[in-house]
Amino acid sequence: MQYRIVPVTPFRQNCSLLWCPDSGRAAVVDPGGDLDRILAAADDAGVEIERILLTHGHVDHAGGAGELADRLAVPIEGPHVEDQFLLDRMAKQAERTGLAGARPVSPDRWLSEGDQVGFGEVSLSVLHCPGHTPGHLVFHHAPSKLAVVGDVLFRGSVGRCDGPKGDHMELINSIRGKLWPLGDDTAFIPGHGDMSTFAFERAANAFVSDFVEY
Ligand SMILES: [Zn+2]
Ligand SMILES: [Zn+2]
Q: Residue 157 belongs to what domain range?
């Protein structure tokens, strides 16, 4: 699998374009906005977007999904149904954050722990990692040792849990119970900021390293 990160919206949200090098079939994870930049990246890579994947229901991640799905006539998969309340409140979220053009989103398929999503020859595993939001998902590609983690984990930080239905302990348990078992040598694309590895975070992350006790 190959990938490119396209930061979108004033929040510099890491939308990622993932594709199968054999077939040129691609998926877009978290098209929060700036759709022209996402489409330009796909053009530039010479790949065809065949589906949209969502990690969670926050506007900077999901606000452009409805329009992109319409423009390309492709399905939206994810997040977990527990985030439906956020997708339904997209207009409110957009108003609060000043992101214009966000639309309510109705996924074609809700995803759950253990599901697989695919494009071309690539298959990603779905992990349900609640805490930042109750329906947050992580997409994992074992052969590449790569995870797309949205706002669960960042380089040196973790997702905020002060939003509706956020839960800090649940988030820590998601990271330690679901992400660390994928392996220390796993690299991850966070929802914001630079990429990192689980090994680095287990050693150095002030919120969730192996030295932090709860
Ligand atoms: Zn978020
Ligand atoms: Zn975010």
A: 2-204
